[in-house]
Amino acid sequence: MIINIVAGGPTDHLPDLTQYNDHNCVWVGVDKGVTVLLEAGIKPAVGFGDFDSVSSDELYAIKKKVNQLMTYEEEKDETDTEHALNWAIGQNPDKIRIFGGTGGRLDHFFANVQLILKPALKELPYQVEIIDQKNIIFVTYPGIHRLNKISEKKYVSFIPVSSAVDRLTLEGFKYPLKDRHIPLGSTLCISNELLNDYGTFSFREGILMVIRSCD
């Protein structure tokens, strides 16, 4: 099972959601994201939010069409997207994807990036991905990782999000590396490219964010 979470970010940053409407996926809407899903002809299984960003007519439609709504007060300790992500993790899926998490307000974007850095996610057997029209973002931990080529997103960037990433090795890339120490703040590993159908990257210590992008 794949759980697709659609947050309330600007719709012009969204990819075509129907491309991700796999037969085994469950859709979840967050606040305005519930309306976005309904307008795309996709019925979310669950909706989360305080729904402060929807009109009264939209809220009426949401209550009429969505069977399970998890509503919260505007003043709370977790964002609506975090509530949705916590619920998704509890369903033990094979993958979680977040849409509508980029663009618009930078504080919302960085909050969503913080979500995929939650320590609890380190133990999951998959990466939680943030996806928009031009990017796929996820976080990895020490080990050996394979990266398959995605033709429409040919650029691959590796960004340390811990104090450093130690002994980073890139194989099968246009700009290979061997056992490099990458400190926080380094831009050494921006805009790399795979040479063939796949490549591998590995490191011994730290936390690494991987961003796959197109122009």
> What does the overall shape look like?
elongated
* CATH-derived topology of the largest domain: Rossmann fold
According to CATH, what is the class of the largest domain?
Alpha Beta
Q: Round the Cα radius of gyration to an integer and report it.
A: 18 Å
By DSSP (H or I, 4+ residues per run), the number of helices equals 4
How many beta-strand segments? 14
The strand line-up of the biggest sheet is: 4-3-2-1-5-6-7-14-9-12
Number of domains: 2
Q: Tell me roughly what share of residues is in helical segments.
A: 10-25%
Largest sheet properties: 10 strands, mixed
List the helices and strands and how they pair.
Layout: E1 2-6, E2 25-30, H1 32-39, E3 46-49, H2 56-65, E4 68-71, H3 80-90, E5 95-99, H4 106-115, E6 128-131, E7 135-140, E8 143-148, E9 155-160, E10 164-171, E11 177-183, E12 192-193, E13 198-203, E14 208-213
How does this structure look, described?
This protein has 215 residues and is an alpha/beta fold. The chain has 2 domains: 2-133, Rossmann fold (3-Layer(aba) Sandwich), CATH 3.40.50.10240; 140-213, Thiamin pyrophosphokinase, catalytic domain (Rossmann fold, 3-Layer(aba) Sandwich). The strands form 2 sheets. It has a 10-stranded mixed β-sheet with strand order 4-3-2-1-5-6-7-14-9-12, with helices on both faces. A 4-stranded antiparallel β-sheet has the order 8-13-10-11, with no helix packed on it. The protein has helices at 32-39, 56-65, 80-90, 106-115, and strands at residues 2-6, 25-30, 46-49, 68-71, 95-99, 128-131, 135-140, 143-148, 155-160, 164-171, 177-183, 192-193, 198-203, 208-213. It is built from 4 helices and 14 strands. The protein starts with a strand and ends with a strand. The longest helix is centred in the middle third of the chain and has 11 residues, at 80-90. The model has no long low-confidence stretch (mean pLDDT 94). Strand 3 (46-49), helix 2 (56-65) and strand 4 (68-71) form a beta-alpha-beta unit.
